[in-house]
Amino acid sequence: MTMTNHTDNVADLVRKEYEHGFFTDIETDTVAPGLSEATIALISKKKEEPTWLLEWRLKAYRHWLTMADPNWTQLNIDPIDYQAISYYSAPKSKDDKLKSIDEVDPKLLETYEKLGIPLQEQMILAGVAVDAVFDSVSVATTFKEKLADAGVIFCSFSEAVKEHPALVKKYLGSVVPAADNFFAALNSAVFTDGSFVYIPKGVRCPMELSTYFRINASNTGQFERTLIIADEASHVSYLEGCTAPMRDENQLHAAVVELVALTDAQIKYATVQNWYPGDENGVGGIYNFVTKRGDCRGDNAKISWTQVETGSAITWKYPSCILKGDNTVGEFYSVAVTNNYQQADTGTKMIHIGKNTRSTIISKGISARHAQQSYRGLVKISKNADNARNHTQCDSLLMGDQCGAHTFPYIEAKNSTATVEHEATTAKISEEQLFYCRQRGIKEEDAINMIVNGFCREVFKELPMEFAVEAQKLLGVTLEGAVG
Amino acid sequence: MLNIQNLHAKIGGKEILKGLNLSVNAGEVHAIMGPNGSGKSTLANVLAGRDGCDVSKGTVTYDGQDLLKLTPEERAWAGLFLAFQYPVEIPGVNNVYLLKAAVNAVRKYRGEAELDAVEFLALIKKKMKIVKMQEELLNRSVNEGFSGGEKKRNEIFQMSILEPKLAILDETDSGLDIDALKIVAEGVNSLCNEARSIILVTHYQRLLDYIKPDHVHVLSGGKIIKSGGSDLALELEKKGYDWIKEEVA
User: Fold this and answer.
1) What is the ipTM of this complex?
2) What is the per-residue pLDDT for B46?
3) Residues A309, A213, A285, A189: is their CA dihedral positive or negative?
C-alpha cells in the first residue's frame, strides 16, 4: 500500500470535518440545519411516507419539545445545539469523498491493517470514493434470495414502510414508545433509516443477519431505527456493527432499536461499536446515545443482548428486556472499554413481569488512563412475577490510577418468591500477572492483551466465532499503550 | 554461563543483597540455601528482572551478555526461566494458550518458525508424560483454582516446554507434601543435562534428597557466606544455620 507524507492525524481529520459543520446546500438534497415541524414534514415527504407516520413523528416531536436533556448519568456532556444539526442528508456524493487512499490518514490505515481489513473495505470505511462493484454486492444478492425463500423480510426501514406498512404500523414504537426518553423522542421525530427484520412463524433464520459488509450505508445513519420482529417459535441472530473505526461527520448518534419476540421465539442481538472516540486529549468523538429494548411478548420467548463497546467519546445505552410472557428469558452480556477521556454509562434493565422469568447480566468494564465508566442496571420484579430469578455479575478492570469505574445496581422486587443476585468486583491488572507473562517471554503489550481478553472471555464466547476474533483484536488496538 | 560479581540490590530502599558473588557453569546444579530473609528470593527476582528490585552495584553476566540491561522478556528469550515461588492466577487465560504464546515468542526471537496448534499439541503431549502433568489442568485458566502442588507442577511443566538454558527454581519445594515434592523433583531431574544450568533456591534440605546439587551455597545477610558440595546441605540440616554464621564471624 502506498503511504504518503500526508501528516494529518485522525483527530485533525475529524475535527476539520466538524469545523466545516454540516451541509447547508439545499441543492444537494440536504435539509438546512434546524429542527421544526416543517423539517419533519419535509423528511417525511422526501421519504414518501404515509400520513400516519408523519403524524407519529410530529407527536414525538411535540413531546420532545417538552423534555429536557437527561442529566442523571455519570457523564460530562457538553451542551448539544439541536438547531445546528441537519436532519436529512442524501447519501454522500462522490464529490464529498476523498479522491484516493493517499488522502487517508496513515494512522487510521495502520489500525485497519492491525484489524486485518482488506484494502477495498479500508477505502470504503475511510470514505474514499470507490467505483468498482464489490463482490459483496453479489454476495448480498445471494443472501437475499436465500432469505426470501425462508420468508424472512430483511430490508431497510424505508423499504419496509413502503412494502410492509401493516407490520411497521403494528410494531413501531410498541417497545420503545415515541415519548420514552429524550433521545428516543428525538429519534422518533427525525429518524431517516435503519433496518427492518421480520421472521415468520416457526422459521429459523437460515443465516446470521448482519451488515454483510463491515459497513452498510443504511446502517450508519445518525438517527437510525431498527425494528426486529420474531414471530411465534422463530429464531434469529442479528449482528450489528463495525469493528473498524469509522470516519463519520456526525457527532450525535441517537439510535433506537426495538425487538419483539412472540411466543417461543428467540432473538440474539450482538453489537460491536467502534465509533471514533476522540483524540487522546478528549477532543472530538461521537456521542452514542442509544435506546435498545427487547420485548419478550409471548410465553417462553428469549432475548439476548451481547455488546462490545470500544468506541465513541460518550456512550449512553442500556439494552433492556421486558420479560412479559411466562418463562421468558432475558440476557445481557457486555464488554465496555474506555480509554483516554472516553466516558461510558451503560448497563441494562430487566423487567420481570411474567411468572418464572429469568435474566442474566454479565457486564465487564475496562477503563484506562482518564476514562470514566459506569455500570447502571435495573432489575425489576413485578408483583405477579412469581419465581423470577436474576443473576448479575459486574466486573471492572482498571488500568492506571486516574480512571474510574462505578456501579449503580438498582433492584426493585415486589414479589417475595423472587431470587436476585448481584456480584461486583473491581480489579487491576497486577504487576504480578504482567511480570509472570513477561518472564515467560510474552511482551508486555501482548500480555496485557491476553489478560484483558481473559477478563472478557465470558462475554466473547457469546459472540459468533468470527466476530469474537475481531473483537479480541479490537480490544488490543483500543488499549494499545494504556499501561506503562 | 552465569557470573555474578559483587551484587548489591535494594527493595523499597532497603539493601537486601550486599555484595553477592556466584558463578554457575553450564550443566551444573547449584543450591542456594539460607534462613528466611537472607535474600534468596530477591536474588531470583533480580536475575529475572522484576520491577522494584534496584541493583545499586555489581555486575551479572549471562551467556556473555550484561543480563541487567535486558528486559524480563528479553531474558526469557535468552533462555532464562524462573519457576515462581507463588505462581500467579490469571483468570480467563487458558493455560495452554499462555504457554503457546510463550513458546512462540521465544521461537520468534530465535528466528525459528512459530509452532502451529497441531505441532504445539504434539509437544505438549510429549512433555506432559515427563512431568506427570494432569491433562485437566491444561485447559483451565492459568493457575486458577490450582492446589499448591498443582501450581508448582505447572511451573515445572512450563519449564519442560520452554527448555531454558538457566532455570531458577524459587522455593519450588515450599508448600508441597512429600508425594508432590517427589513428582516435582523427578520432573526437574529429567530436565537436567550438560547444557542446562539450574539454581535451586530453597530453605530446607529435603528437596536435595531428591535433586542432587553439584554445589551448595549458604546465603545470609545478603552474601554467600559458605560454599561446598552436597554434604554441606546435610550438615545444615543437622546443625541449622547458626553455626556457619558463627564460624564466618
Assistant:
1) 0.95
2) 96
3) negative
Identify which has the larger pLDDT, A400 or A225. A225
Question: Phi then psi for A436, rounded to 5 degrees?
Answer: -60, -50
Grid cell at residue B38: 537472607
Contact across the interface for A430 and B88, Cβ inside 8 Å: yes
- Is residue A397 less than 8 Å (CB to CB) from chain B? no
| CA Rg value for chain B | 18
**B92 to chain A: closest CA residue:** A454
Mean predicted lDDT score pLDDT of chain A: 80
Size of interface A-B (CB pairs under 8 A): 76
Domain ranges for chain A, please list them: 3-478
Per-10-residue mean pLDDT for chain B, 249 residues long? Answer: 95 92 95 90 95 92 95 96 94 91 93 91 88 85 90 93 95 86 88 92 87 93 91 84 75
Residues of A in contact with B162 (CB under 8 A): 440-441
**pLDDT of the residue at A217:** 39
How does strand A256-261 pair with strand A235-241?
unpaired
Q: Does A438 touch chain B (CB under 8 A)?
A: yes
| Angle of CA points A441, A398, A307, to nearest 5° | 95
Q: Give the residue from chain B lying closest to A429, CA to CA.
A: B90
CB A52 within 8 A of CB A2: no
What span, in angstroms and rounded, lies between the C-alpha atoms of B44 and B35?
15
Look at residue A277 in the predicted model and tell me its pLDDT. 77
> CB B90 to CB A442 under 8 A?
no
List strand residue ranges (DSSP E) for A158-286, in order. Answer: 195-199, 209-210, 225-230, 235-241, 252-253, 256-261, 266-273
pLDDT at A245: 59
Of A371, A348, A367, nearest in space to A422 by CA: A348
pTM recorded for the entire structure: 0.78
Distance between CA atoms of A166 and A184, rounded to whole angstroms? 22
Show the cell assigned to A362: 454479565
Using CA coordinates, name the residue in chain A closest to B76. A441
